[in-house]
């Protein structure tokens, strides 16, 4: 991997880091926000889903135009809007205003994940793509190790607004990095023979069963993942007595492991095959899903090891999945397809958060019932994703050195 490629991946990882922290910090803040605003778990699920719904809508609409522009310009514009939305969250005085701020952040943040993965897929050929994606997705691990614990500490010491203020300030630095060091990424424009009509993006997908199966795979995985994620912290605190002050340790320990395992999983997927590696980690992830949703103790010795394997196995199934999905479309349509994919993922996240919110019930004492049924739903979705992934097939791609090399 060249120095230019490494620099590009580093900046893409910074983009991922900031918008992942912005999205993830809401979930461990659940107990604090529910107490401050006097809201139910169901209403909190709606706050979490506000980001996903708005991001899903913007991602869907972006699919109709993103492939007509330099990917750098798309990412830079979206990131500036995301930073504005994050600052709005930092200064939200009420939960109603917070929902509005989350909608703004989600509207622009919804474009980022798809474009980051499109850039990686355009730059790295399929044989190296999982390795590159493993590096970029390490941002999730770093966000878990540094971003979430630091954000929770700032929230406990200075108020829940503070993490968003810090992320916004970091975003200003990333804007400079994108402007200064990311090269033009317009090779997909030079190879376009005919400009697609407005509805061609959708009709092309609807006519391609392989692409439809890839999108269904994304949706299924997100339904399984995000039905349980928003409620891990509230149930640990309310049901088994886990200290709210120790919530950061879950992300610290789990993220620490995945910093090392995520790149390894990427290289393993490139070497052994994306699908076999996905199946292995999907099956392994069922173990911590069951344990988390049927937690028997709030002691650190019980919670932290389960959190660690949950992070490792869940992250392990996502890396090969992204590589599989990115290779069902040509580079000329990849930006649009990945935008649709991200949009559906975000909608699925929002639906999953609300599914979890409707299943669980909070007693007057604070105890949360029925979380184990959310776990069973998640397990069912993961099993289904294994069968769907088997039917998704990669298509031949133009060699990277002819199509989308990095030029600075």
Describe the structure.
By secondary structure, the chain is mainly alpha-helical. The chain is built from 17 helices and 2 strands. It has helices at residues 3-24, 30-37, 41-62, 71-90, 95-123, 126-158, 162-181, 187-190, 200-206, 209-226, 232-239, 247-272, 274-293, 300-326, 331-359, 371-390, 400-403; strands spanning 361-362, 368-369. The chain has a two-stranded antiparallel sheet. The radius of gyration is 20 Å and the shape is globular. The relative contact order is 0.17.
Q: Which outline best applies? A: globular
What's the CATH superfamily, by name? MFS general substrate transporter like domains
Mean model confidence by pLDDT? 82
How helical, in percent, are the residues? Answer: over 70%
Q: What does the main sheet amount to?
A: 2 strands, antiparallel
Class by alpha and beta content? mainly alpha
Strand elements, count: 2
Distance between the first and last residues' Cα: 15 Å
Which properties best describe this structure?
408 residues; mainly alpha; Growth Hormone, Chain: A; two-stranded antiparallel sheet; 17 helices; 2 strands; 78% helix
Short description:
This protein has 408 residues and is mainly α.
Secondary structure layout plus pairing:
Layout: H1 3-24, H2 30-37, H3 41-62, H4 71-90, H5 95-123, H6 126-158, H7 162-181, H8 187-190, H9 200-206, H10 209-226, H11 232-239, H12 247-272, H13 274-293, H14 300-326, H15 331-359, E1 361-362, E2 368-369, H16 371-390, H17 400-403
Antiparallel strand pairs: 1-2
Helix pairs in contact: 1-5, 1-6, 1-7, 3-5, 3-15, 4-5, 4-7, 5-15, 6-7, 6-12, 6-14, 10-14, 10-15, 10-16, 12-13, 12-14, 13-14, 13-16
């Amino acid at each position: 991997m060249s120095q230019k490629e490494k620099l590009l991946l580093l900046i893409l990882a910074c983009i991922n880091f900031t918008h992942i922290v912005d999205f993830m910090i809401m979930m461990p803040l659940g107990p604090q926000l529910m107490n401050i605003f006097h809201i139910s778990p169901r209403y909190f699920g709606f706050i979490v889903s506000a980001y996903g719904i708005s991001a899903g809508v913007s991602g869907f609409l972006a699919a109709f135009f993103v492939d007509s522009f330099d990917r750098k310009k798309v990412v830079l514009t979206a990131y500036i809007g995301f930073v504005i939305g994050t600052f709005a969250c930092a200064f939200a005085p009420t939960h109603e205003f917070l929902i509005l701020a989350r909608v703004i952040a989600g509207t622009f943040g919804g474009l980022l994940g798809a474009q980051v993965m499109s850039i990686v897929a355009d730059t790295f050929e399929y044989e190296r793509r999982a390795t590159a994606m493993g590096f970029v997705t390490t941002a999730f691990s770093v966000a878990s190790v540094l971003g979430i614990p630091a954000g929770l500490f700032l929230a406990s010491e200075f108020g829940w607004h503070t993490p968003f203020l810090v992320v916004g300030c970091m975003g200003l630095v990333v804007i400079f990095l994108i402007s200064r060091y990311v090269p033009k990424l317009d090779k997909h424009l030079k190879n376009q023979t005919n400009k697609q009509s407005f509805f061609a993006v959708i009709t092309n997908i609807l006519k391609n069963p392989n692409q439809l199966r890839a999108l269904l795979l994304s949706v299924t995985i997100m339904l399984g993942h995000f039905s349980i994620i928003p409620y891990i912290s509230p149930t640990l605190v309310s049901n088994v007595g886990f200290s709210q002050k120790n919530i950061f340790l879950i992300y610290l320990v789990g993220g620490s492991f995945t910093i090392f395992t995520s790149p390894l999983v990427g290289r393993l997927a490139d070497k052994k095959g994306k699908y076999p590696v996905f199946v292995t980690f999907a099956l392994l992830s069922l173990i911590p899903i069951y344990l988390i949703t049927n937690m028997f103790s709030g002691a650190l010795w019980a919670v932290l090891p389960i959190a660690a394997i949950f992070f490792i196995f869940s992250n392990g199934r996502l890396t090969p999945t992204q590589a599989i999905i990115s290779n069902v479309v040509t580079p000329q349509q990849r930006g649009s397809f990945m935008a649709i994919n991200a949009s559906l993922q975000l909608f699925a996240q929002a639906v999953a958060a609300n599914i979890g919110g409707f299943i669980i019930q909070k007693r007057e004492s604070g105890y949360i019932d029925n979380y184990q049924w959310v776990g069973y739903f998640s397990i069912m979705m993961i099993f289904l994703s294994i069968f769907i992934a088997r039917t998704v097939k990669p298509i031949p791609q133009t060699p990277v050195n002819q199509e989308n090399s990095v030029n600075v």
